[in-house]
Design brief:
Mean pLDDT: 85
Low-confidence stretches: none
Shape: globular
Strand order of the largest sheet: 3-4-5
Distance between the termini: 11 Å
Radius of gyration: 14 Å
Strand content: 5-15%
Structural class: alpha/beta
Number of strands: 5
Helix content: 40-55%
C-alpha cells in the first residue's frame, strides 16, 4: 500500500507507522517521493507530529480497533483494510465516529 501511494502522483505519503520499520526497504525502492515520508514507530506519535488527511490501516485484527479509535479521537479519518473486526468493534467505532464527527471506511481484504 505504501508503494501504491508513492506511485500515484496525486497522493502524498507523509508518514509511515511501523514499529519495526519493515516498510523502509519498500519506500527506499520507490525513489525520492518516498523519502519525504516521516517514519514513526507509534501511531500516537504520528498523530501528534504530523497533519494527516487520512490513515490507511493494514495492521492485524488485534490492533486495528484501537488504532481506528485513536485516529477518530484524534480527528483523523481512517480507511481500514484489515480483516477481523467483530460486530461489537464496528459498533464501537461507529459510535465514536458519530460522537467525533469523523468518517471511517471499513473495507476488509481490499
Amino acid at each position: 500500500t505504501c508503494a501504491a501511494i508513492v506511485a500515484d502522483e496525486e497522493l502524498a505519503l507523509v508518514a509511515v507507522i511501523d514499529p519495526a520499520f519493515a516498510s523502509e526497504g519498500v519506500l527506499r525502492r520507490q525513489g525520492e517521493r518516498a523519502d519525504d515520508a516521516q517514519h514513526f514507530s507509534d501511531l500516537g506519535e504520528a498523530l501528534e507530529a504530523t497533519e494527516l488527511d487520512v490513515i490507511v490501516d493494514f495492521t492485524t485484527p488485534s490492533a486495528v480497533r484501537e488504532n481506528v479509535l485513536e485516529c477518530v479521537r484524534g480527528r483523523v479519518p481512517a480507511v481500514v483494510g484489515t480483516t477481523g473486526l467483530k460486530a461489537s468493534d464496528l459498533a464501537q467505532i461507529e459510535q465514536e465516529c458519530q460522537a467525533c464527527g469523523v468518517p471511517v471506511l471499513v473495507a476488509p481484504n481490499f
